[in-house]
Amino acid sequence: MSGELYRRADICFRALIDTYTLNKGLLNNQILIMDKHEIHPSDVISRRKRGVKMQKEIGEIIKPYKKNYIRETRKSIGHSPLMVPACGVIIENKQGEILLQQRSDNGKWGLPGGGMELGETFLETARREVYEEVGILVENLELFGIYSGDDRYIVYPNQDICWVTSTIFKTTEYKGEILQETEETLGHRFFSRDNLPENINNYDRRCIEDWKRNNPGIIID
């Protein structure tokens, strides 16, 4: 995002906060006192219109980022480290085996999932990523764990660097046919706890090992 866009976004947010503050303080057409300045309720109408206009401007600023946040941000920062919130899903079959995907960029096995897009909820991200990568619809997602730390760095083949915090869900319910080779994966396969692959993606290793231990409770690490 350019300096001019940052300036406009800052003005927009300040206007929205100002309008929100006025609306919260308005009661029975009384005069408001804020920062030692008197603000008459009649000012609220013009402030509200200004806030709506600014909100539309914000929408235009973030519009290209909502389609692909990381790609658009990379245009400004290049390969520099980028903090990314992400979601993944542990999918178990009736035999209690975990579904892993073999990544096409490094050949290692990991969980289906990916980064959030602007405006998404955690559940929306998890469901979207699984559908895009695996081709199935997951249901009744339960929180498995939240992961952060020094092992969350990812360096991609094109030298892009991300530091990713992950919200991991778990489910045994899904619909559809599991895809194999896709744009991002070489294949999908279910593994039992005593027969996990050796070449597990470092980024996913902690999550998968926690699943293997089958410890109760939500993990925050």
What does this structure look like?
The chain is α+β, with helices and mostly antiparallel strands and 221 residues long. The chain is built from 5 helices and 13 strands. The strands form 4 sheets. Strands 3, 6, 8, 9, 10 and 13 form a 6-stranded mixed β-sheet that branches. The chain has a 3-stranded antiparallel β-sheet with strand order 5-4-12.
What are its keywords?
28% strand; 6-stranded mixed sheet; Nucleoside Triphosphate Pyrophosphohydrolase; 5 helices; 2 domains
Lay out the secondary structure.
Blueprint: H1 3-25, E1 32-34, E2 37-39, H2 42-67, H3 69-77, E3 82-91, E4 98-103, E5 109-110, E6 113-115, H4 122-134, E7 137-139, E8 142-147, E9 153-155, E10 161-171, E11 173-175, E12 185-191, H5 202-213, E13 219-220
Parallel strand pairs: 3-10, 8-13
Antiparallel strand pairs: 1-2, 3-6, 4-5, 4-12, 7-11, 8-10, 9-10
Helix pairs in contact: 1-2, 2-3
